[in-house]
Specification:
Layout: H1 2-21, H2 60-63, H3 68-75, E1 84-93, E2 102-105, E3 112-117, E4 124-131, E5 140-142, H4 144-150, E6 159-164
Parallel strand pairs: 1-5, 2-4
Antiparallel strand pairs: 1-6, 2-5, 3-4, 3-6
Signal peptide: 1-21
Protein name: D-galactarate dehydratase
Keywords: Signal
C-alpha cells in the first residue's frame, strides 16, 4: 500500500513538473521598432568609453580603472560661473563595474555634463549626469571613481551638491 501511495505521489509531482516546461508555448514575437523620426536627435556620448574592470576584480583599485590623467581632468576646476545648482542629494555608491565619472540622479531628465561637490570634504569632481527614474527628492548613485576623488567613504551615504553645466 505504501508503495502505491509513494508511486502515485511521484507521478503527480512528475506531471506537475512537466507542466512547468510548457513545450507548446511559442516564442514571443517582439513588437516592430519604429524608425527614428527626422526631428529626433541621437544621444551623444559624453566621454570616451572607460575601460571596464576585469572580471577577476576584487579590490577597489582593480575596479577603479581610471588613469591618472582621467582623475586630474575630473578634479580640474570648471570655468567660473558655469553650472547651475540642481540640488543636494543623498548619494550611494553605484555599480562598481560601471567605469568612469558619473552620477545617476533624478535631478536631470537628459544626459548632461556636470559636477558634484561634497560639503563634508570640500572636494569637487566633474561627472556625466545620467537620468535616474523616480522623484526629484529620491537619492542618487555615484561611480566608484568619482566617490574616491570626493574623499568620502565608499560605505557612506553622503549628501552631495549636484551642478549641471
Amino acid at each position: 500500500m505504501t508503495h502505491i501511495v509513494s508511486r502515485s505521489v511521484f507521478l503527480l509531482c512528475l506531471a506537475a513538473l512537466a507542466g512547468c516546461a510548457n513545450p507548446l508555448r511559442t516564442a514571443k514575437q517582439e513588437a516592430p521598432v519604429a524608425a527614428p523620426q527626422a526631428d529626433m536627435v541621437a544621444p551623444t556620448r559624453l566621454e570616451s568609453a572607460p575601460k571596464r574592470p576585469p572580471a577577476s576584480a576584487r579590490t577597489v583599485e582593480q575596479f577603479d580603472t581610471t588613469t591618472t590623467q582621467d582623475r586630474a581632468a575630473a578634479v580640474a576646476a570648471p570655468d567660473q560661473g558655469k553650472g547651475v545648482l540642481l540640488g543636494r542629494s543623498v548619494t550611494s555608491l553605484g555599480a562598481p563595474t560601471e567605469a568612469g565619472f558619473w552620477v545617476k540622479t533624478p535631478l536631470v531628465t537628459t544626459r548632461a555634463k556636470g559636477r558634484v561637490t561634497s560639503p563634508q570634504t570640500g572636494n569637487s569632481v566633474q561627472v556625466d549626469l545620467i537620468p535616474l527614474g523616480g522623484e526629484a527628492t529620491g537619492g542618487s548613485q555615484i561611480s566608484l571613481a568619482a566617490m574616491r576623488l570626493l574623499g568620502v567613504a565608499l560605505t557612506d551615504l553622503p549628501e552631495l551638491d549636484i551642478y549641471q553645466q
